[in-house]
Amino acid sequence: MNSPSPIYVEAPNQNLVCCICRMPFVDPCTNQACSHTFCRDCIIQSLAHSPQCPIDRSTLRIEDIHPADPIIRSLVDELAVKCSNESAGCLHTCQRQLLDAHIKTDCPYALVPCSAHACAEEVFRKDKDGHICAHTSVTCEECEKSIKYNELEAHRSRCPKRFFQCEDCEIEQPCSSRATHTSSCYAVTVKCSHEHHGCPWEGRRKDLPAHTTTCSYESIKGFFAIQDARNATLDNQNMLLKQKIDTLESQLRVAQFELRCAQSALGPWFRDSTSRSTSVSSPSSQLLIPSQPNGASSSRLYMSPSDQDSITQYFPDISFDDRHTSPLAEEEQRSQRPAPDRPAFSPLTQYSSSHVSFNDTSFNGAPIPNWSSTGSFPTGTGPRSPQNIVAPLNLNTTLEGSLQGLRESVVALSTSLDSLGRRSDIALTNEALRLNEEVMSLRAALHGLRMQVHTIMIDHNAQVTGRGPGIDSMFVPGDSQWPSFNLSRAHPMQNASPNSITKL
Amino acid sequence: MTSISSRRLAKELMEIKNDGCPVGINLVQADDFSIWLFTIEVMGESLYQNEQFTLQFRFDQQYPISSPAVQFVVTEGRQAPVHPHVYSNGHICASILGNEWSPVLSVIAVCVTLQSMLASCKEKQRPVDNDRYVKHAPENPKKTRFHYDGEV
């Protein structure tokens, strides 16, 4: 189909309309199975999407599609349509099947290529003969030469038969020599050849030689040449230097960026090299081992005020000199300082304080000679222990020093933990032994008591019943029986025989 | 070059303008051949009496060979009807919008089908998997592979 959508003169019969595109059939096709008719393009597209008849959804293959009845074909082919060049002005109407032929051969508003050999333009068919295109030949009025239409303007300005009058020397010249005349006309206004050095002279060309002999710039022509050459080299050098500066600047920016990265990675350990050189010392001496609660090591805690300030900034939970500050004041201090590391360190101090209270409550009253004799374990009576157990991190050394110090303190911590474990083992064994002995003695006392009660019961029974001691055979094997058996008489007996118990 | 879809839609639009919409359906917006909006309400006795919904049609270049993307509009204070086949984001689980679409169907035919779907509703409730579906639903309902079980 040449034209995509022909415009029908009248509304077509609904029986001739394809139900997919809602237009009269184009190249109608009928499927053999259910006899529905569609445009060929429509049904092929629809089957590609889903292989069923669009109307009754029965299965349909492309092989089932056949051209529709010739009657239907002629009915749609003979529908009256308007020419598709109606918008351009063609009012022709014809049968649809003739439309292609009309456009191809007759329609005056159809676009056809220009008849000229090299012209790519398209023109209306009716304009074809009168069309003047770039390739039409025209004749120059002066020289009577045949010139292409699009070259006529250019030819006119240099046609040898045409003349022009020079504005400066007022002599008529042929157009063909226009370009050469302007550069040689003696009356044309020119400037001094040293204009770019600053000579203000301006005059007719014929006066130029006279000026040149008097021109002050002409006399130092050699100097100008040297200066020009030197300026050129300087310019080149300048350009090179600029490029160098650019590269250096970009390198500097990269270096600055890297430095900032390193700075943020180092954190509090980043320090100027000058300030660090004054306070270099061995990392181990700066560190506090937790198992040394004596006065000498604790005094090392107190540093110069500035150092302390910088450290408390990072460890706000460890207060150095006023350890008796109220919790409220401590809260104030925390809120005033930015404390990035606080959450990591607060559990540590909490541990130390709870550690002390553990000593206080459960083991302080117990008579354990081993613990008090070692003296290294804090017994919890003094409030200094929470600060002494955790050593502050030294920020004055290098990062490696601090790491080494931390490692040492971990080693010390593990040794002290080890010794603590061993000590508690010993204490546990001692306590277990003591308790064992006590249980043994209690058991012996209980046994004696039972024996006494037994004797008393036998005596008593003998007195009441008057029978012999044969009855005791029912009490001896069943221990569980006798508390319920003589519950009422148990109390007076216990009260009555305190002496026998104390004897044990 | 006018595509088959825009020619067909121009035809449908002309029919709507000439013959009008069925009762309860009104064309709101059809400025181009990519998005059309309709209001739809159920006439007569039904669970959706006095409720008005907005239907959005989105067409691609393949229309009418492929189905339009149809959903209820749920923005600017508009709600999707509470129906066992309509998700709260407006997506509709209806077979004629999916695998049972046929090029013979038209925009008005879809509107009428959805209207009768609402009219025959017996109980106002969301689909059982509404929350799960709405959470992961694609923007275009045509990208969802619905499983059609009811008769719609």
UniProtKB/TrEMBL annotation, chain A:
Give residue spans, biased composition: Low complexity. Answer: 275-292
Q: Which InterPro entries match?
A: Znf_RING, Znf_RING/FYVE/PHD, Znf_RING_CS, Znf_TRAF
From which residue to which do the TRAF-type zinc fingers run?
A: 81-123
Q: Which residues form a coiled coil?
A: 231-258
Please list the residue ranges annotated as the TRAF-type domain. Answer: 81-123
Q: What is the lineage of its organism?
A: Eukaryota, Fungi, Dikarya, Basidiomycota, Agaricomycotina
Gene3D superfamilies the record matches? Zinc/RING finger domain, C3HC4 (zinc finger)
Keywords assigned by UniProt, alphabetized = Coiled coil, Metal-binding, Zinc, Zinc-finger
Q: Where is the RING-type domain?
A: 18-57
Name of the protein described by the UniProt record:
TRAF-type zinc finger protein
MF terms per GO, please? zinc ion binding
Domain of life assignment = Eukaryota
> Native species of this protein?
Lentinula aciculospora
Compositional bias, Basic and acidic residues, is annotated for 321-335
Compositionally biased tracts (Polar residues)? 293-306
> What ranges does the record give for the region Disordered, renumbered to this chain?
271-306, 321-351, 369-389
From TrEMBL, chain B:
Q: Keyword set for this entry?
A: Ubl conjugation pathway
**InterPro entries per UniProt:** Ub_conjugating_enzyme, UBC, UBQ-conjugating_enzyme/RWD
Q: Reply yes or no: does the keyword Cytoplasm apply.
A: no
SMART domains given in the database record: UBCc
What are the UBC core domain coordinates in residue numbering?
A: 4-152
Q: What is this protein called?
A: Ubiquitin-conjugating enzyme/RWD-like protein
